[in-house]
Amino acid sequence: xxxxxxxxxxxxxxxxxxxxxxxxxxxxxxxxxxxxxxxxxxxxxxxxxxxxxxxxxxxxxxxxxxxxxxxxxxxxxxxxxxxxxxxxxxxxxxxxxxxxxxxxxxxxxxxxxxxxxxxxxxxxxxxxxxxxxxxxxxxxxxxxxxxxxxxxxxxxxxxxxxxxx
Length: 165
Fold this sequence. Notes:
Rossmann fold; 9 helices
């Protein structure tokens, strides 16, 4: 399982590529879950319809003990870390403070850009020009990306047999 934060859902939604998130997770054969603290933050219609209470593909689980992280984080990020830590799942976080706290709590993490990298490796993103276009679209929304991270993603190579999916 992978625990999604609001920022990840919003990033894919804002650039009109929410279905790409589903494709990437499908290629990984990983199910998506959000804590109840993220559910109330989701504003994009396609993301709302993806929630299990609407017949969708993103499960919702009540996060417990997330309050202990509220000294440094918002409800959503705190819930993601608490849920990922409890089950040993991967937390998908973009906020730097949330990522630092997750590491301190020994939670495995990735972010929106990490998922894009995987999307390129495993083929839902067909080629480097499309990958660059997605990065540009994210940049146009104000999504922060360190130049060295972008460079690392653009240096990614396709996995052998990835197109066979």
